[in-house]
Amino acid sequence: MQAEPAPNPRELIQPGRVHRRAYNDPQIFEMEMERIFGRAWIYVGHESQIPNPGDFVSTRMGRRPMVMVRHSDGEIFVIHNQCAHRGAMVVAQDAGNTEEFVCCYHGWTYGTDGKLIRVPLQHGYPGHFNPDDPGTAMVKAPRVESYRGFVFASLAKDGPALTDFLGYMTTSFDDMIDRAPDGEIEIAGGVFKHAFDGNWKLYLENLCDAAHPLFVHQSSIEAAVEQDDEVHTDGAGEVAVRQMRQNGAPYKFWLEEVGIWTYPNGHSFLGDYHDDEKLVAAKRDPVFAEYIDTMEAKKGVGETQRILEVTRWNSNIYPNISFMSQFRQFRVVHPVSVNRTEVYNYSFRMKGAPEKMFEDTVAFSNVTNGTGSLVLTDDLETYSRIGIGVNAGGAEWIEVGRGYETDRPGENGGVEGKDSTSEVYIRNMYDAWLDYMSTGEDAS
Amino acid sequence: MDRIADTDTESFLIHEARILDERRWEDWLALFADDGWYWVPIEEGQKDPKQTVSLMYDDRRLLETRVRRLAAGKLHAQSPISRTTRTVANVTVENEDKGKTIVRSKFQMIEYRRDKQRLFGGTQWHSLSAIDGGFRINWKKVELVNCDSMMDGLSVPF
Lengths: 444, 158
Ligand code: FES
Ligand SMILES: [Fe+2]
What we know:
The complex is a heterodimer of chains A (444) and B (158).
Chain A: E1 13-14, E2 17-19, H1 21-24, H2 26-35, E3 42-46, E4 55-61, E5 64-70, E6 76-80, E7 95-97, E8 100-102, E9 109-111, E10 116-118, E11 143-147, E12 150-154, H3 162-166, H4 170-178, E13 185-196, H5 201-207, H6 213-216, H7 218-225, H8 236-246, H9 251-256, E14 260-263, E15 267-271, H10 286-299, H11 301-309, E16 312-317, E17 321-324, E18 329-337, E19 340-350, H12 355-369, H13 376-389, E20 397-399, E21 408-409, E22 415-416, H14 424-437
Antiparallel strand pairs in A: 1-2, 2-20, 3-12, 4-5, 4-7, 5-6, 8-9, 9-10, 11-12, 13-19, 14-15, 14-22, 15-16, 16-17, 17-18, 18-19, 21-22
Chain B: E1 3-4, H1 7-21, H2 25-30, E2 32-41, E3 54-58, H3 60-72, E4 83-97, E5 100-113, E6 116-131, E7 134-144
Parallel strand pairs in B: 2-7
Antiparallel strand pairs in B: 1-4, 2-3, 4-5, 5-6, 6-7
The structure holds FE2/S2 (inorganic) cluster and fe (ii) ion.
Residues 83, 85-86, 88, 103, 105-108 of chain A line the site of FE2/S2 (inorganic) cluster.
C-alpha cells in the first residue's frame, strides 16, 4: 500500500475558507504537533500551583507529558516527564512537593531542575555513558517565561519573547489579574476535564463564536427562560439560569453591542454580551457593591473604574488557551489525536475579594464549563458532529468567510470584525497556523 | 452504624432508578422536596459544592431547568438519546434524625449513545423524608468512582 503524500499546508488555505483536511488528516495533525505545539509558546500552568521550592504539577505540551516544577532557587522549570534510562514516566502524581524525582524502574534520580544526580548500580554502563551529559536528564524545555504568574514554555530554542508573542493580549491577562483587590489571583475550586471526538482547533474556534449560542444552546436558553424565579435557589441556580438566559441575547444585540478583535499570532477576544446587571457587571448585586468598596479602598476610585470598564468575554491565546476575566474561567486545550481532544477548565480566585464572589465563579463554571453542564454538553456534541461531518467528503472546503468583506483594522493593531459574528478570529488563527506550518524545519 | 434498609426504602431507590431509565424526567423531579438538591461531586471526599466545582450541582431551581431541558427533548446532546440501565444494591440506612433518613447505596449505570457504551458506578446517598405512602428526596449525592477522570459530556443525571 502506498502512503498518501504529505499535504502542503499552503494548499489547505484559501481566502475565507479552509480545506477539511485541516480537521481530519492525521499527517496534518502530526505536522501541527511538531510545528505548532513543538514551537509556539504553550501555556503550562500558573505559579499559584507551585508556590514553594520543590512544588510540582504534571502538565502537557501538546501530547507530551511534562512537569512544571519550582527548583530550590525558585526558578521554574518545565521538564519532559521521561526517564533518560529506558523511558519510563518518572512523575506519576498530578501534583506534590519533592526534593528529587526518583524513577520507579531502576532508581535513576533527578533534581527538580531535571539534572541526573544519582544512578544506582552505575558500574555496568559503557564508557560513553556520562551522567553529567545534559541529554542524560529529564530534559528541560529550552525556554520558560511567565507573564504575571501565567507560565508558558516553548520547545524551540529560539523565538519571540513571551510578551512579544502575546502582544496586545497581555491586556486580557491584566484585566483578569487587576480585578483582584490584592492584585493577585490563584487557581482554586477544582478542575473540569472534558473530552470530545473532534479536532483540537474546533475548541478555540467556538469560544469567540457569537453566532452559535442561539442555535447550539437553544435547549438551555428555552428551559431557562421558562424557569419560575420564585422557585428555591441557594444562589447557584440563580447564577446558572441567568447565564443561560444571556446566551439567548437577541441577534440584534450581537450585531450592535458586541465586538470581536484579533491580534497577531492567532490571538483574539470577544466583547462582553451581558446586559444582566446582576450577573457580570453585577452593579445591583450587594456582594458586588462590597467588592467595589474593597477595590476603591485599595486601588482608588479612578483605577477601580478603569479596571471595571474593561468588558471582555473570551480571550483566545493561540494555540491552546481561552479565558474570561469576569468569572475567571481558564480553559487549556490538549490535542490527543486528529479527532480527539481534551480540555482542562480551571477557575481562579481573586485574592482580597468577598468570599461569595468565588461561590458565583464556581456556579458559573458549573453551568458554562462543567462536564455535566446544560450548556457545554451541547457544545461538545457540536464538536463531535463536526468530527464526523468533515469525513463525509461532500464539500471539500470549510467556510470561514463570515464578515470577510467588512473586517477592518483595529485600534490597537490587528483586525476587528464589523460586529461580533465575524469569523475574523478563525481566519486570524489560520494566518498563524500557516505561518507555523509553512516554516519547514521542525523544532524538535 | 449501618444496617440493611427496609424493603420500602430499597423499593423507593429501585423505583427512582427505573424512572430515570425510562426517561420520565418530570416524575423524577417530583420526587424531590421543594428545596431539594442534587449533587455529583468532581473530587473524592469533596466537602461542599460551593467552593469547588461539581460534575452536577443543582439546587431546586436549576434541577427544574435541567429537567425541563431534558423533557423538551430538543437538546443536541441527546439527539440521539442515551439509553441507560441502572442497578441499585447494598442499600443501608446510615442515620435517622428528625424524620430524615440518610440512605447509602451502590449503583451502576450503563449509558449507551451513538456507538459508545460507558459504565458509571459509585456510591449514592439519599436524604429521604417519609410522606404519606412514600418518600421525598431532600437531597441526593452521587459519588462516582471516576469523578475526577477525563470524560465526554454528561447530559443524563445518575
Ligand atoms: S527507566 Fe528509569 S531508571 Fe530505568
Ligand atoms: Fe457554546
